[in-house]
């Protein structure tokens, strides 16, 4: 019985096949991201949904559909199986009483990036990689630094100087080699690319979608949602989209489950939420284009979705088209308002990216794209606690003998 049924890597654009037993970055034929493919017949005959129910509540319960080949290679801090929390009050207010939040703020490092890091680092170490480098908007760097430390790898992390400060501290605490750049993640990406080229063979480029396994970790969000709903898909899944790996991963999960016969019926309509200050996917979607173009002077308080030109843009747009989904841009002011509304009505202090997804739910209900009786899952991709500056908290400091009104 195999722990993993990984069979090969396949280019997401040209379909070229690459062997999975050694490290890969982009497709050697066309320079596009590679996707992991599994022997789904073997998965189907070795495990059933009922078997899965008896396994520990973390993402490794899906190990047949993950790329790590031996149980001993798993590097874990207990990530996965986050709750699907009913959002009844906020849902009532916006007219979607069946609203659910998948709360990724509860995974190690406080963002869903831990899923990609757990699987990506485990597989990198299994393939003999000793040093990683990556650009990040903060959360991914923190997660890879932490999991890298646990695996005994060294990590070089490059992030914009205005990325959430706590993520820098996490990198330093975990012993990563941290660099700040006075620019965007795209500038950090160029620096990493140069380092990797100069150190040929000694440093592995672990940038988003430039290695094929981070997406496999993020895919588990989709596997969990379907399992948690009793092997049914929701009507709509709303995802704050930066590099889009989570969305591509959820789409991949739904396809694999459908092919396995564990999920029937139409797929969930996927929604890519972006910020008005950085919306390359929304622009491409509205123009009916198959790829995005670089978004100049991007800015938003939702730092994790400030990605001016995602490498996997064509895969994001394909996922939206195949699921009858949509893309929507929301303003920073309105997402902060929704962040406060969700905290006040539900007691959930979500991250700004998650708040953007709530704003999207509200606006898509108002426009009629979401119907009242639909089951809608919003991804809160991280903990509000990682962004201590988001909500102003001025209060007068009282003298010790003051009394309260
Ligand atoms: C990285 C990140 C995102 C965007 O994720 P992608 O999969 O790159 O689209 C959203 N929210 C948070 C909190 C993030 O850290
Ligand atoms: Zn290719």
UniProtKB/TrEMBL annotation:
Keyword Lyase applies: yes
InterPro entries, per database record: Ser/Thr_Dehydratase, Ser/Thr_deHydtase_PyrdxlP-BS, TrpB-like_PALP, TrpB-like_PALP_sf
Name by which UniProt lists this protein: Threonine synthase
Tryptophan synthase beta chain-like PALP domain location: 75-382
GO molecular function terms listed in the Swiss-Prot or TrEMBL record: threonine synthase activity
Cofactor(s) required, per the database record: pyridoxal 5'-phosphate
Top EC group: lyase
Keyword Cell inner membrane set for record: no
């Amino acid at each position: 019985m195999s722990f993993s049924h990984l069979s090969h890597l396949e280019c997401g654009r040209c379909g070229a096949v690459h062997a999975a037993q050694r490290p890969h970055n982009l497709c050697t034929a066309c320079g596009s991201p590679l996707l992991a493919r599994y022997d789904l017949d073997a998965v189907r005959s070795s495990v059933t949904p009922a078997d899965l129910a008896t396994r520990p509540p973390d993402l490794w319960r899906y190990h047949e559909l993950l790329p790590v080949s031996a149980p001993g290679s798993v590097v874990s801090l207990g990530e996965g199986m986050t709750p699907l929390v009913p959002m009844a009050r906020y849902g009532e207010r916006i007219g979607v009483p069946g609203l659910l939040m998948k709360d990724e703020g509860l995974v190690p490092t406080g963002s869903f990036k831990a899923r990609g890091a757990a699987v990506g680092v485990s597989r990198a170490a299994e393939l003999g990689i000793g040093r990683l480098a990556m650009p990040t908007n903060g959360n991914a760097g923190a997660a890879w630094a932490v999991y890298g430390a646990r695996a005994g790898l060294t990590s070089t992390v490059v992030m914009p100087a205005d990325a959430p400060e706590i993520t820098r501290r996490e990198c330093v605490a975990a012993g990563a080699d941290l660099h700040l750049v006075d620019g965007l993640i795209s500038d950090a990406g160029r620096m990493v690319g140069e380092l990797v080229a100069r150190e040929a063979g000694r440093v592995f480029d672990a940038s988003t979608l430039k290695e094929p396994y981070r997406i496999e970790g993020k895919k588990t969000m989709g596997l969990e949602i379907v399992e948690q709903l009793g092997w049914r898909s929701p009507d709509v899944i709303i995802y704050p989209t930066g590099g889009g790996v989570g969305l591509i991963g959820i789409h991949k999960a739904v396809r694999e489950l459908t092919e396995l016969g564990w999920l029937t019926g139409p797929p969930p309509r996927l929604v890519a939420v972006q910020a008005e200050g950085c919306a390359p996917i929304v622009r491409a979607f509205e123009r009916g284009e198959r790829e995005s173009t670089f978004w100049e002077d991007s800015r938003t308080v939702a730092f994790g979705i400030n990605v001016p030109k995602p490498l996997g843009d064509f895969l994001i747009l394909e996922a939206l088209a195949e699921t009858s989904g949509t893309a929507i841009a929301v303003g920073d002011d309105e997402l902060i308002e929704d962040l406060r509304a969700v905290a006040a009505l539900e007691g959930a202090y979500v991250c700004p990216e998650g708040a953007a997804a709530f704003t999207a739910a509200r606006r898509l209900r108002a426009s009629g794209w979401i119907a009242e009786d639909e089951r809608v899952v919003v991804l809160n991709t991280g903990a509000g606690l990682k962004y201590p500056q988001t909500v102003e908290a001025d209060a007068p400091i009282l003298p010790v003998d003051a009394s309260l009104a």
